[in-house]
Amino acid sequence: MVPDVFSIAKAEVRMTLRNLGFWFYLFFVTLIVNLVFVYSHTNPLRETIVQVVSNVLFFQFPLLAIVITPALARHQHSSREWIWVTQIDYPLLLAGQILGFILLFSFVIVFIPCLLTFAWMVFEKSSFIDFVAVGKIYPLLLLPVTFLEISIIVSITCLARNSMSGIAFILATTILTWLGVLMPSASLLTPLNYTLIGLYFDPVAGLGAEKKLTETLVFFYFITGLFSLFMSVLANALLFSRERTKPGSKSFLMVLLGFSAGTMFLAYGLYWLEAKQRTVPPPPSQIQIDTWKLVSDSHIGSIADNQLKLASELTILNASSDPQTDLFLSLNPGLTCDKAKVNNETALCERKGEFVHIPLPMLVKPNQKISVEVFYQGKLILLREDYSLAYTMRGYSPPSFQNPVYRYLQNDILYLHRDGDWKVHPLSSFSHIGPTTITLSVPVSSQIVSSGEIIEQNSSHITYQWIGTLPQILLASAPYIEIPTSNDKVFLGVYSDKSDFDKAVLLLTFKKSLDSKFSLITDSQQTVIMLPYAQELIFSDSIIGLPAKYRNQNDLVNVEYLLARDASFAWLIDHISWPHEINTVGYLRSFETVCDEPDETGYQECRTISLGKYNLQAPQARVIYQIADSNVLYALQTILALDLLNSSVQNESFVKHEYENWLQKAECNNEIILPPAEILKARWVAGIYRLFDRIGEDGASKLLSFLAEKYKSGSPALTEQEFLQTIESFQYTQNYLPEFRAVLSCNMADNLMEEGK
Amino acid sequence: MKISIENVSKFYEKNLPALRDISLEINQGMFGLLGPNGAGKTTLMRIIATIIQPTEGLVKIGNYRTDNMKEKWHILASLGYLPQELSLYGSLTPYEFLDFMGAIKGCRKRSNQIKELLEIVGLSNSAHQLIKTFSGGMKRRLGIAQALINNPSLLIVDEPTVGLDPEERTRFRNMLVDMASDRTVILSSHIVEDIAQTCCHVAILHQGKLLYKGTVSGLVQQANNKVWEYTSSNTPLHSSILVAKTRISDSNIKYRVLAEEQPMEGAYLVSPTIEDGYLWIIKKLHQVFSKDEAG
């Protein structure tokens, strides 16, 4: 007869519940979670989750040891010999005890944070999304590590065979780790910390892109725990057990040990693979920036089963002065190139980092056009750094290797936007707008918001098409919650809350205000849609794509100002062509890679400097898109944002205060204190503010409309010089150029300050 | 169930034997293991219970050897054990504790059996009280209940009456006798009365040696014609005389002594008891062993 493991577990749970140490543990865990809530309730949810998980997992370890160790060691004493004169197999007894502990502590460790979050929600200190998030994330993170901690405690107790030695060892390890002596190498939580640092809970996709990473981490911890248990029980059975283990059990344990060891290495490999895939992919051996000019392109494809399948046809021109033998096209690392043709000749197509390399079957001379067909498909990979590091890389400039998130495809959630790497394109440092046709067939599973035209529709698929030289593609599909407003539509994620709705409504106001400022006719109905993982606010005709990043801001005025700035920025880059930059210089956590200018042979010297401990995340630098640091763009964005706040939110005091700040920064005597670039930015803001003040609202609107017309996307970019020339030539502003120049050169900055006061 | 102990010796440390060349056969019914503290009784019990292995010799329980890993698990299936030192799970109730014991003994559908056992040991009214609140006697009774769960055919009880009051002790002895009707019960004790009241067969251990094995009446016979009683006021006693009992009455003392010959004038022979037999064996046979070793 096999002894009943569950009855052993039940007895263990009963005894633990009547143990004072358990209530001590319960009190401390509650206290820790509550303290974290008190100290971080103004922080973003993600930070609260990270702090709760880190603190609970760290401090519960010795407390668990205090409760569990004596229970495990209790049968070592001769007064408990009655237990060994039963048919109990030692591993089975341990299994029952461990099961009891796992069931009890798992319940407690998940129940307490959820209960406290619920309590905080009842007292309106926390929102519903917090509750949903913690309900999903806490168990996922707390359970496997708690299991691992219990396993370690069991292992140490089994080997030490003495409760005091076990507790002393765990206590000493915890204290030394807390003091930093054993960090970070000895910390079992290192992979967890790494995952937690960038953990992102999306209001549309939930764990979404983090799911696999988190699952593999959970799997790794769980298997490590199992391995640790099997190893210690087997060691105990072989060395000390007074022959309390049946021979069959020993063989079975050995098989389990071998299996768990193999699985543990596999789990670690899977986790690390997932972690690496979510970070920087290897860079290409060669990058062709502005080598090819896009003449026209068309893309036809479909989306099914989380896979994107596209056939792209590009007509490109060799814009360089050298003949070319290779073609590098940007393409998401998750997509596999099946086939390529160049001028109807079949060509090789191989993956190189974030690019596909097509060796050209012929030499392409300067100014020669070629036609390239590329067939590719696969699952889009969303790199973790592109959406997550923004929260952890504060203060870094440039802010790591972040590319804009223009694509996401997982399960029933889809998001595609303009020139993302979801379709092939050559790298160019300017807006490459040409005649474009995009035809995409999308499954009908949830709500779909698209800027494209429906050309075909059946019960399972809708086919959209975008035609034009300025394809403002925005396609988003997810199980959205549609909230009707008076005239417009708002689509929010299933994990959104009221603050998201408030932001959506505010954005509608801003969008309409900007449209009228630029003398554009606003569509009768506007749509705000929350985008998964997007970090940028996106305008696409009558659709406004709302990113979730504002959730991390708690100060309402700051959020409004940030929204106004981003709305202005989105509007400006959408309607005016600005200088772009593609480079390979960036920072990422532990490494900094700096490359020199290429020499005449094209050779480029790059140096990777370690800023700390070795970190696999940043093997080398990465190609990044970056809108150049244009002072005009910055100043217009700031002024439009202040104007939006003034007109839409009527926050005059904030606007006045903010303007005074800019004037203060623009002062001449600041040249020693502030960096020159910062002062110049402030002077541009002050200059344009004064210019708009002089020419009035109507004049400013006319100037902006003129700029949008002359420098529209696809045209040569609006540089600072071009802007000054426009002021000089434009009828409403031509008289104010000397004054504008004076502000820029500091001659006027101090006077402005006086006037401002 | 027949138990054969063949030439068993146990050394915890070199030159410090706990048991020396013990050979014994135990059959169904009550069997007493008598000896002073440190005689090796607990060691022998633990060997029979398979908790420890003998250094030399062989123990067979039924058809199974205790030193065979596979056969040991068959022995454990039919074994109940109440150790001398008893520490139960204080934070469980007797019912929960017996449920746990039933589970680890592989006993399914044990609810009725637990209730029955609690009834037998007289703990039905305290079934849902925490064990840590129990008296020593109640804990001993619960100890016997845990040993009896799953109905073992061999029950080993080591010094079960230590610390019990007379009423509890009597109750306990009666309970053991009842249980011995259909199983083998080995009762270890240094209290002669416990054995006298319960067992038909007995073995005496002293300093790891087996001094006697046989029936209780045989043990009493060992002291036949060697038990004397006399009254004296201040008569000095000879070293060869072992005083079994003294009783003060008025200004005199009444002595009960064990001696080969009349210890003094006026001393008269009386009928021996099991205690007299036990003391005679301990004294005399121990002397023989000591001489042998010295020789």
Notes on the protein architecture:
The complex is a heterodimer of chains A (757) and B (295). By secondary structure, chain A is an alpha+beta fold. Helix content of chain A is 46%, strand content 19%. In chain A, the strands form 6 sheets. Chain A has an 8-stranded mixed beta sheet, with no helix packed on it. In chain A, strands 17-18-19-21-20 form a 5-stranded mixed beta sheet. Chain A has a 4-stranded antiparallel beta sheet with strand order 6-7-3-11, with no helix packed on it. In chain A, a hairpin with a 2-residue loop joins strand 6 (350-352) and strand 7 (355-364). In chain A, helix 11 (498-517) crosses helix 12. The radius of gyration of chain A is 31 Å and the shape is globular. The termini of chain A are far apart. In chain B, the strands form 3 sheets. Chain B has a 6-stranded mixed beta sheet with strand order 6-7-8-3-9-10, with helices on both faces. A 4-stranded antiparallel beta sheet of chain B has the order 2-1-4-5. Chain B has a 4-stranded antiparallel beta sheet with strand order 12-13-11-14. By secondary structure, chain B is an alpha/beta fold. In chain B, helix 3 crosses helix 4. Chain B has 9 helices and 14 strands.
Précis, in short:
Chain A has 757 residues and is an alpha+beta fold. Chain A has 18 helices and 26 strands. Helices cover 46% and strands 19% of the residues of chain A.
